[in-house]
UniProtKB/TrEMBL annotation:
This is D-2-hydroxyacid dehydrogenase. Residues 115-288 form the D-isomer specific 2-hydroxyacid dehydrogenase NAD-binding domain. Keywords: NAD, Oxidoreductase. PANTHER family: 2-HACID_DH_C DOMAIN-CONTAINING PROTEIN (PTHR43333), D-ISOMER SPECIFIC 2-HYDROXYACID DEHYDROGENASE NAD-BINDING DOMAIN-CONTAINING PROTEIN (PTHR43333:SF1). The keyword NAD applies. One of its GO terms (molecular function) is NAD binding. Belongs to the D-isomer specific 2-hydroxyacid dehydrogenase family. It comes from the Bacteria. Residues 46-112 form the D-isomer specific 2-hydroxyacid dehydrogenase catalytic domain. Pfam families: 2-Hacid_dh, 2-Hacid_dh_C. The lineage of its organism: Bacteria, Bacillati, Bacillota, Clostridia, Eubacteriales. The keyword Ribonucleoprotein does not apply.
Length: 325
């Protein structure tokens, strides 16, 4: 029950009963409220939302309009790792803290990526189509992941979990991030300036970097032309990190071996997109990070940030408003 006071928390995402109970126990039933986030200005705005100091919601729901209605908010926690659409300048002006859920989705995303690597290596996507056509065809050149080079663009928490799994398959794992430094499970880590030089040796290129003005279309025609004809490109970051039109052309020309996409420049993907009909593409509807354990992990992460917030310490998953991730 909402009774007013300091550090009132408004949870604007759907959580299961167990997760809600955990939050109430840790924060205090009188300091937390669960409810909707209005879709537009004409909808009723809950009084509890307008009075909150702490807000948990999807990053995509953080808008200029929302902030105008929240004069008391001091900290916003995004349950998504991506916060590319957030009005960063306004947050900076008002001194509002922002945290996200980076690292929360490392296990499910890395599992899906490994499944995709196996599918392309063993030809499972091709054999599935053959099965539907009742066609016995052994012409696909099946391979192993052993000794194949995996290039992870964005060696953050998800990238590190992927590297750990990939080493179990005896892959060569290289990483690219904003600055080069040794990391566990990576054979080598390079700065982003080295990306194009690394592409020709990569058998699989997995994009996991945040979307920022600097990473918009960081994979486009020039980068695709540097890749092996057999290489597979996977995007589990944000759609606009890859130039989708350039990718479609590269796939149609078999300039690269294939692609696996969980995110797109516009979502949901249009029924008219040529990506649907390309035989060297695996598509999933932005489900890579979903897990039945998501609410449990989300609450654990939020509480860690909450404890730091209460002690006026840096938030464990604070977003750098200047760097936008």
């Amino acid at each position: 029950m909402w009774r007013g006071g300091l550090n009132m928390v408004y949870v604007g995402v759907a959580l299961n009963e167990s997760a809600q109970y955990t939050l109430k126990q840790r924060i205090g039933d009188e300091h937390i409220c669960f409810g909707p986030i209005p879709g537009d200005e004409d909808e009723p705005w809950p009084q509890e939302l307008c009075r909150c100091e702490v807000l948990m919601l999807w990053g995509s729901r953080v808008t200029e309009t929302l902030l105008e209605r929240l004069p008391h908010v001091r900290w916003i926690h995004s349950v998504s790792a991506g916060v590319d659409s957030v009005p960063f300048a306004r947050l900076q002006e008002r001194g509002i803290l922002l945290s996200n859920s980076r690292g929360l989705h490392g296990r499910p995303i890395s599992e899906q990526i490994m499944g995709t690597l196996i599918a392309f290596s063993r030809g499972l996507h091709v054999f599935w189509r053959n099965q539907q056509a009742h066609r016995w065809d052994r012409s696909y050149a099946v391979d192993e992941l052993t000794r194949k080079t995996l290039l992870i663009v964005g060696a953050g928490s998800i990238g590190r979990e992927l590297a750990r799994k990939a080493k179990a398959f005896d892959m060569v794992v290289r990483g690219v991030r904003s600055f080069a430094e040794p990391l566990p499970y990576f054979d080598a880590v390079y700065s982003v300036e080295d990306l194009e030089a690394l592409l020709p040796d990569a058998d699989f290129v997995v994009v996991l970097t945040p979307l920022t003005p600097k990473t918009y279309h960081m994979i486009s025609t020039r980068q695709l032309s540097r890749m092996k004809p057999s290489a597979v490109l996977l995007n589990y970051a944000r759609g606009p990190v890859i130039d989708e039109s350039a990718l479609v052309q590269a796939l149609k020309r078999h300039q690269i071996g294939g692609a696996s996409l969980d995110v797109f420049e516009a979502e949901p993907l249009s029924p008219d997109s040529p990506l649907w009909t390309l035989d060297n593409v695996l598509l999933t509807p932005h489900t890579g990070g979903w897990s039945p354990y998501q609410d449990e992990r989300e609450v654990t992460l939020f509480i860690a940030n909450w404890e730091a917030f209460q002690q006026h310490e840096p938030l464990p998953t604070a977003v750098d408003l200047a760097r936008r991730y």
